[in-house]
Amino acid sequence: MTAQTLTKAGTSASPQEPPTWRAELATAFRQGDELLRFLDLEDRSCGEAAEQFPCLVPRAFAERMNRGDRNDPLLRQVLPIDAEMDVVPGFEFDPLAETSSQCAAGLLRKYKNRALLVCTGACAIHCRYCFRRHYDYTQTPSGAAWWSEALTFVQSDNAIDEVILSGGDPLLLPTNQLQRLIHDIAQIKHVKRLRIHTRIPIVLPSRITEAFIALLESSALPVVVVVHANHAREIDAAVKQACQRMRKTGVHLLNQSVLLKGVNDSAKSLIDLSQVLFDAGIMPYYVHQLDKVAGTAHFAVADEDAQEIMRSLQKELSGYLLPRLVREVPGTDSKQPLHY
User: Fold this and answer.
1) pTM
2) What band does 36 get if pLDDT is binned at 50, 70 and 90?
């Protein structure tokens, strides 16, 4: 099943909500040449790369890009290019060994007290550096009781006190399904927190509907929403409004970024991002060194350059605005800090 098919499958209508955000997603750019024409740029995208990992960019995100700028940092994150087809030693299909971390259908167990549920293979945007761009979503459960095996496993292990909803993007589930899933997780007594990893408030803020806000307000568990923005220009007025609405429900909002060459590999970019995030009510959390997934080597930033950038941030930012520079290493008991 392709990522494009999964995107369509993950956006089935829910009678509880107006169709606004689904209609917006239906008009997303699905061809690199179409996106380039919208930006008044010559067509030089790579069809071969898009065949391997389809292009998908909501218009709300594309409208934040600078027209006529081939090197726009938002465009670089989503445009299929020839470099993705390069075979580079050390860049693999499963760089985080997630296949070996699966302990039940759709459930990954990487760390002692946390379990991550891959809720869906659908995303609202296809980031070209995605570490799950080669993930086999055909193994993700589906059907009326599709999460039952995963939650049975969580129920059986008292060490798990936090469940993470991931994907794809869990916010592409219909709100009634998401509400039922969160309710079922809350019935497990030793689970103390729920975490939702999502890029949707950044790329498709119209998804933060009244029904979704009501879902957050009704949660019996404390909720942490970890969004994903890499550049300050990703945060516009609509994103700020969506995040402020979530904050009013009492959820904790954090951001994780990926350090990407040509996107945010400068102190100024990350300083601007931290400041804009704080203004939107989001706390900087992690800056990840790139996961070495096949097709992404052109985004890689050397460790010594990353450390130098972070030293500059440390001089310029208040401590609470300083994200942690980390790398995920398979088999370790936590994200690994890159000291600087």
Assistant:
1) 0.92
2) very high
